[in-house]
Design brief:
238 residues; 74% helix
């Protein structure tokens, strides 16, 4: 296929995928609802069945739809998301890991302040659950699961802000980089101090103190970033 032909095909697939998303929205379908059959979609858009399948696979990669063998096409959990993490992202280098933390240190503190003002009840309850789960995992020594629970806390904190787009942004920089977050946990080391800082952030949000919530979140992430930078500097000298 020529370069221009490849561009045209990508454009066709993008247009087709966008049209399918519009159809899902038009029909007010929710995650888990069954979507139109592949052959029916091919007839609707006057394209070949393999083309429809390729467009659907693109949507499936983002979590917008699910293709269930022998059952059909279903609406996926990410159909309404505006911000999506790259599911094929490679593990970042040390420099990119530092950039990730720098970005989080800029994004999350104001989100924590908004959470203290909004205080989403369900998310606050989830934050409390995350803290309890982290304490149990520290006691049991399950550090792999602890890394995931710590990321859950940060996602719950963002959800407490009541701003779905901000919550998606925070999730996008934590879900895809789960392996790197585990590495951060190993480098940072002091799991109990990490938990204590999370508890202090939760208390500030629950008490409705946006300035304190923002300050504590910034100090927490800046502290992790400082330890990472120090460790990488030492490794660079070795």
């Amino acid at each position: 296929m020529s370069a221009s032909g490849g561009v045209v095909r990508r454009s066709l697939l993008d247009d087709l995928a966008t049209s399918m998303l519009a159809l899902i929205a038009e029909r007010k379908l929710a995650p888990g609802d069954q979507f139109e059959a592949v052959r029916s979609l091919a007839e609707r858009y006057k394209v070949a069945v393999p083309t429809v399948r390729e467009a659907l696979r693109r949507l499936e990669a983002t979590g917008a739809v699910e293709l269930r063998h022998g059952s059909g096409v279903y609406v996926g959990p990410n159909v309404g998301r505006l911000v999506l993490a790259n599911p094929l992202a490679l593990a970042p280098s040390a420099a990119r890991l530092v950039e990730l933390l720098q970005a989080r240190a800029l994004i999350e503190p104001p989100v924590a302040a908004l959470a203290a003002r909004t205080q989403g009840a369900e998310a606050l309850e989830q934050m409390s659950h995350d803290l309890a789960a982290a304490a149990e995992l520290i006691a049991s020594g399950d550090h792999a699961q602890l890394a995931e629970v710590n990321m859950d806390f940060h996602r719950s904190l963002a959800q407490a802000s009541g701003n779905a787009t901000l919550a998606e942004v925070v999730e996008s920089v934590t879900v895809v980089n789960a392996r790197e977050q585990l590495e951060i946990l190993h480098i940072h080391g002091d799991r109990q101090a990490d938990l204590d800082e999370h508890r202090a952030i939760y208390d500030a949000v629950r008490s409705g103190d946006p300035d304190l919530a923002e300050l504590l979140t910034r100090e927490h992430l800046d502290g992790v970033l400082a330890v990472i930078n120090e460790r990488l500097d030492l490794e660079g000298r070795a």
